Amino acid sequence: MTKNLRVKSSEYIDETNRISFKFNGKKYHGFKGDTLASALLANDIHLVGRSFKYHRPRGIMTSGSEEPNAIVQINPGTNRTEPNVRATEVEIYEGLEASSQNCWPSVEFDIGGINNFLSPFLPAGFYYKTFMWPASFWEKYEFFIRHSAGLGKSPTSSDPDIYDHRNVHCDVLVIGAGISGILAAKNAAKNNFKTLLVDEKNELGGSTIFENTDFNKIDNKTPSEWLKKEIEELKSIKNLEIKTRTSIAAYHQYNYLLARENLTDHLETKNKTNKVRQRLLKIRAKKVILATGALERPLIFNNNDRPGIMLSSAVKKYSEFYGVACGNKNVFFTNNDSAYESALSLYNKGITVAAIIDIRDQSKSKIVKKVEEAGIKIYWSHSIVDTAGYKRLKKVTIMKLSNDGTSVTGSKVSISCDCLGVAGGWTPAVHLYTQSGSKLKFDDEKNVFLPNQNTPEQISVGSCSGDFKIDEIIKNLDQKLKDTLNIKETGLDNIKVEIDQESSKRNIWLLPSDKPLGKTKPFVDYQNDATAKDIKLALREGFRSIEHVKRYTTTGMGTDQGKLGNMHALGIIADTAGVKMGELGTTTFRPPYTPLTFGAIVGRNVGEFFDVFRRTPMNDWHVQNKAEFENVGQWKRAWYYPVNGETMHQAVQRESKAARESAGILDASTLGKIDIQGSDASEFLNRVYTNAWSKLGIGKCRYGLMLNEDGMVYDDGVTTRLGENHYIMTTTTGGAANVLGKLEDYLQTEWPELDVYLTSVTDHYATASLCGPNSKKILKKIIPDLDLSDENFPHMSFKEANIGHIQCRIMRISFTGEQSYEINVQASYGKDLWEKCIEAGQEFNITPYGTETMHLLRAEKGFIIVGQDTDGTMTPIDLQMDWIVSKKKYDFIGKRSLYRSDTMREDRKQLVGLLTDDPKIVLEEGAQIVSELNQSPVEMLGHVTSSYFSPNLNKSIALAVVRGGKDMMGKKLFVPMENKNINVTVANPVFYDAKNERLNA
Amino acid sequence: MFLINCPYCGERDQQEFKAGGEAHIERPKQPTELSDDEWAEYLFMRKNIKGVQFERWNHAHGCRKWFNMVRDTSNDEIKAIYKMGEKPPSQ
Fold it and tell me: Which of A448, A550, A650, A897 sits 20 to 30 Å CA-CA off A466?
């Protein structure tokens, strides 16, 4: 039977709004305002999961994002399922389903629980030590380890939700809407700073909002009453934007922060559709005020992980805020006064508090007196040495603590209970502070790491800066706000605060037991099952660096990043190694503070919006004519045009033959085009290309090779001189942006004296390349009045003409070895031009061809493709392109490097042609080339860079880079493949029409 | 993510910029006069300082202008930004 532990109506729980939800398949009820954790606790359910390594039963430990244990799978089996969600952060809604993780067959009976009994054999580093040998077995081990470990299950179908990104700019960002954050935001906004206040919870007010005791008073009101009034006032302040359910994930340099805003996770499924689920805020703030609060830390004692053992502050929050008692018979274990507040909260609601165990020998504060008056038994100088209860806490066993705190004495006392609230003091939440790159200092008195500096751009206020008491908070906040915001008045100095709290604390990182450490299980990292024993073992085995101990023991490496136990891990290491905490430092807190969904990270950039695609003006025609596409850089280029169910090979063979026998047409719009103007344009080209440009006549085209300063080929393309001081340069499709960048770099930084202007015009022009023996006839049909004779319009020249009313630039240049005309028109006329060419070419069976055929045709001619036949290690000499390197020019980019001892070596890899002895065998691109088959190991001479079956030569051809290949003409080499060795012969890379007779045919 | 004050456009997000390595390495005026070692010094050798470093940056997705930056590489503090051709600020 389910029980109801709802104790008293809370204003944050709407008991008129009953909500049903399922946990592990069973139906339960909660109310509007409940988290999954509070609703489960109200149904007396503590056991929600199993631990990672030992599969020990684990319960809800906290009430916030620091939760290590109660991580669940939300809506299992649906396309909205989400693993590793903290039950303490899930707001329940009608129809919510959740299930336990890391257990099989169920959380109640988990086979993996046997690991708990095997735990003596599973020490720190067990996996590292055991699965090392033999190394080749790792893949087999891995299969089982991956299946036995692992937390939740990722969804298997696509995410139906919409995610979004938003850029936010503000003067002041306040992180955390507890008392400090609210007062800081109010002052910032009132002083005309554009302010953004964010909090991960759905209600403002932090822990002060349920601070209802009358021990602390602000202006004669309870802190919660007083703060509610402040929050009410916030709503009327201009300049202030408040975002709840918004968690800062990362704090980068220059006050750049990422936040996840949750918009629909708390809504019923039917209300989630067509809404943005989460929004990633990219915040740039002039000033950041960190008011992230503090996390209560547990105490480390034997078997401190059973369901029913919780943080004392969480017990209080469940009682005060959610109106839920976490147990019928409660015990507290503490080293400071905060547990007494929790105890009184329960007592005032009529819930039994059986005892308080305090490791201090006394406290004189009023609250302790009040607890004593209430008749609650306090055991001073006692420690818990063991707990009992497998799936739910049943009792705790205590003993007297020795004066030095290192051992226990006397007889054991057992106290039965079903809930234990643990209070180990407060740890400032400095995670975001350290993410920003700022340093921490250790405060020996408070035993905490604190922010070491406030800068004009960033301050920490409230308990995250070590001010735990309300009077301290308000006093220090007053000064910090005046300094940071440069304001005279805050109104905070008039606030009257009465507090009665003693800050005395006795800090013992690892509490002793009557049993030796080896026989106990004091958990430090709950999620990853790292115990104090593991940490000590790591130190014994020689680990000293805190980062190494962390990795070896996996302490702090769970999804919670050890928010609860990291301080104890450091403390135990410091105590054991005999060093000071401050010297030890901390491990690094990494973003995100709490896990982020992939959806929030990618935002709208999914599906076709994942990356930017560029399409040519002729794209629609290619699509209509069933082209297959390939990605070239960001471009979608027509790859080949299969007809009648052709394979790629068949299509490419047909296209290649057609282009040489009659006419082909290629969409060359993607080539990079840079407009170069200025009185020094010729001189500029002289400096950036290897060949000479000064004498190029107006209306002429020239092929150029561009090197890096290291002498390696960077890009190539044809540049045309349009006028005295006007050129248009073409670059490779993929290299366009980089070439422009490189040219700008030299112009602006090395040669600012040159009068040259560069403009990218790639997108301004569409280019159709007509190619083949009939190309001239087709062009004649389109532009009848242009004199196409070889005398008037020879190869490597340029004409301007009109096709009807369309102006065009025509270059007679060729990348295929055939007579070709590249017709450039304004991009918007591109498709029109293309269709005119196709129509005019009908009688010549004009064949559109794609990039694959272009590659094949140029390979027949031995033309290189930068990036395919070169890889950033090839000089023009290596490519046997000495002819393009000017000997006369004094300098050009990369020239000096061509005379370095390394680039002049004879045994560099050089570009050659390869012919297979069996002309039917087509080599694989990337295949290795050797000269010996009977040697082992054998020297690799080079590799195949381009390889095709040439339909025009009816044999296989290939380009390759081969060490010393220049002098190997006719030499027999081998290409060893998996199942066979292919015999090849080194050949001239120009396979087709070596005398270039077809260009003018 | 830096906030970079482009001398031509004002403050912009780092993602609009491209880093261009160490600044004030002038391309030799007469490369052919240099020995292999001297040329290699220009071509390959960079200081890669931990601390204050003079760097080139380019507002690649903005005005496309190159400029210089003085940055402390240990904490990414940008100490100064100045145009190409201007004298570096004295430290």
Answer: A550
For residue A484, how far is the Cα from the chain centroid? 33
Question: A179-190 and A223-234 are packed helices; what angle lies between their axes, rounded to 10 degrees?
Answer: 30
| Beta-sheet strand order (sheet of A955-963) | A928-929, A942-950, A955-963, A909-916, A981-987, A972-976
Closest approach of chain A CAs to the CA of B90, in angstroms?
21
Q: What is the mean pLDDT of residues A556-565?
A: 86
Give yes or no: residues A683 and A825 share one domain. Answer: yes
Residue A143 pLDDT exceeds 90: no
Specify the residue for token string 């709208």.
Answer: A604
Confidence of residue A150 (pLDDT cuts 50, 70, 90): low
CATH code (residue A528): 1.10.10.1100
What pLDDT shows up at residue A2?
46
For B16-34, b/e burial (b = at least 16 CB within 10 A) is ebbebeebebeebeebeeb
Write down the mean pLDDT value for chain A. 93
CATH for A996: 3.30.1360.120
Among residues A498, A526, A553, the one where a domain terminates is A498
pLDDT of residue A645: 95
A131 and A170 part of one domain? no
Residues in chain A closer than 8 A to B58 (CB atoms) = 741, 744-745
Percentage above 90 pLDDT, chain A:
81
The tally of CA atoms less than 13 A away on the side-chain side of residue A31 is 19
Q: Which of B1, B13, B82 to mutate to test the interface with A (most CBs of A within 10 A)?
A: B1
A590-605 confidence digits (pLDDT tens): 899 988 999 999 999 9
From A519, A549, A579, give the residue that closes a domain. A579
Tell whether A682 and A813 lie within a shared domain: yes
In our burial notation (b when 16+ CB lie closer than 10 A, e otherwise), range A475-494 reads: bbbbebbbebbeeeebebee
A454: containing domain: 162-294+428-498
Q: Are residues A34 and A136 both part of a single domain?
A: yes
In angstroms, the CA A756 to CA A441 distance is: 56
Taking the Cβ of residue A900 and every Cβ of chain B, the question of whether any pair is shorter than 8 Å is answered with yes
- The interface predicted TM-score (ipTM) is 0.97
Tell me the pLDDT band of A771, cut-offs 50, 70 and 90.
very high
Q: Once rounded to an integer, what is the mean pLDDT over residues B55-68? A: 96
Could you tell me the domains of chain B? Answer: 3-83 (3.30.2270.10)
pLDDT, one tens digit per residue, over A958-978 is 999 999 999 999 999 999 999
Burial class (CB in 10 A: 0-12, 13-18, 19+), A937: exposed
Q: What are phi and psi of A513, to 5 degrees?
A: -125, 170
In a domain, residue A307? The reply is yes
Interface test with A, best of B5, B33, B43 (most A CBs within 10 A): B43
- How many contacts, defined by CB atoms under 8 Å, are there between A and B? 56
Task: Tell me: do A349 and A379 sit in the same domain.
Answer: yes
End-to-end CA distance of chain A: 96
Domain count, chain A: 6
Cβ-defined contact of B27 to A897 (cutoff 8 Å): no
What is the reported pLDDT for A686? 96
What mean pLDDT comes out for the span A705-710?
A: 96
- Mean pLDDT, rounded, for B59-82: 95
Q: Name every chain B residue with its beta carbon within 8 A of the beta carbon of A741.
A: 18, 58, 60, 64
Q: Would you tell me which residues 740-759 of chain A have a C-beta closer than 8 angstroms to some C-beta of chain B? A: 741, 744-745, 748-750, 752
pLDDT, tens digit, 9 for 90 and up, residues A744-758: 999 999 999 999 999
Residue A853 lies in a domain: no
Which residue from B32, B60, B76 is facing A896, i.e. has the nearest CB? B32
pLDDT for res A557: 85
Please name the residues in contact with A121: beta carbons below 8 A apart, sequence gap of 6 or more: none
Q: A399 and A469 in one domain? A: no
Q: Does A289 share its domain with A305?
A: no
